[in-house]
Amino acid sequence: MKLGVLIVNSRKPVPPWLLRLPEVGDVSVITEPPYAGDFPPEVEVRTVPSIMDVDAVRRAALDVMRVRPVDRVLSPAEHAISTSGYLRSTLGLPGLGHEASLACSNKYVMKREFVRAGLPVTPFRQITDLGGVEEAAAETGWPVVVKPVYGGGSLDVFVLEDEAHYREFAQMPTSAGLRASAHPLIVEKYVDIADEYHIDGVVHEGKVVFTAPSRYFTPLLGNIDAFTGSYLVPPDDLHHDMLMSLHERAVRAVGLESGVTHLEVFRTEAGFLVGEIACRPAGAGIPDAVLLGTGVDLWRAWSRTALGLDPDITPKPGAPIVVNCELPIRAGLITELTEADELLALPGVVRVDMLHKVGDTVPERLHSSSATGIVFYEAASETEVWERLRIIRDTFVLRTDRD
Question: Which of 3, 272, 321, 364 gets the highest tally of CB atoms within 10 A of its CB?
Answer without folding.
Answer: 321
